[in-house]
Amino acid sequence: MKRRQFMTATAAALLLPRVAAARGMPMTVHKDPYCGCCEAWALAFGSAGYVVDIRNEDDMDAVKARLKIPDDVWGCHTAVVDGYYLEGHVPLEAAERLLRERPDVAGLAVAGMPRGSLGMGIDPRASYDVMAVPRDGSKSFVFMAVRPT
After folding, report:
1. Among the four residues 10, 18, 55, 106, which has the most C-beta atoms within 10 Å?
2. Can you tell me whether residue 119 is helix, strand or coil?
């Protein structure tokens, strides 16, 4: 991992709020073996107290298909935590809200690789949506909007 990615992930983990329940919670992160931003994202969750198991995958499409993640919300990597999936660069704050509120959804997703999202550097102009994907296959909806401060 590059030094800048490490510093970015560490800073993001320290700046975002944490939930005590995350301490020690296991999380499996499936990623392409050559992706550095996925490592930075996983490191931020590890710094927040999650026990992160990183699995390098040769076929991420198969992982996403197995978890029934709609292809319109596919992101860079896929994590599984406490019965939910986190697809792409989901921020810590959104994941912790998901685990605190426990809505009836399959998981959260940030499509693509938005600049300024967790693991993708710090950008005060970052603007993207965190989508919630219902278990029943109905249309995804905005769970959290990330907008410039």
Report:
1. 106
2. coil
